[in-house]
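In the current project phase, our protein records have gained a structure token line. A sample record follows, to show the layout:
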Amino acid sequence: MMPPIRVVLADDHTLFRSGLRALLELESQVEVVGEASTGEAAVEQARILRPDLVLMDLSMPGMNGLEATRRIAALKLGVRVLVLTLHAEEEYLVPVVDAGGSGYLTKESADRDLMEAIRTVARDEVYLPARAATLLLQRYRDVEGGSGGQAHLRDLSAREQEVLALTAEGYSSTEIGEKLFISPKTVDTYRSRVMRKLGLSHRSDLVRFALRAGLLKPV
């Protein structure tokens, strides 16, 4: 049996945290190991407890969730951050990805998507809303002209580019393997090779690179 996914809940609303804890404690795959009501406390909990992921609200007093996400990513402890927020994707999706977040989920969709998001992020994959690739692509085009990253594409093989693009679109290793007719283990090997060639340390970095390189297309 796989060990449970160790989660820290970071939200300044006590009742919401209590409800979320009660919900997650019904899942044998999840263990809530800590709670935080501020961004500072979330960073400290991540440093001390080293959970698999922090379920992070963005609007908290003092240090907000976005800055806390950035600081947790900077610790390089392998702690992933899944943002769970009231804010629509248009407001904070790009900053969360830039801060090193591994996923973005609105509270209104949490009842149906939360466990899938937690499992995805715990696998060290990126969880994004269904329309996120299009939204992110448009934002990066607006800000950067969509040209960044092209120079490094020549360092990647065609298959490595395929794995990179599908990873950035949120597909799991198993799903990518099915699409490309290769094993999930081979997908992981390609992904590791891509990250090494590009000097990236986190899968959220792959999303940013794929966007800048124009590997994601609007749907």
Q: What stands out?
A: The first strand starts at residue 5 and ends at 10. Residues 134-213 form a domain with the Arc Repressor Mutant, subunit A fold (CATH 1.10.10.10). The two ends are 39 Å apart (CA to CA). The CA atoms of residues 177 and 183 lie 5 Å apart.
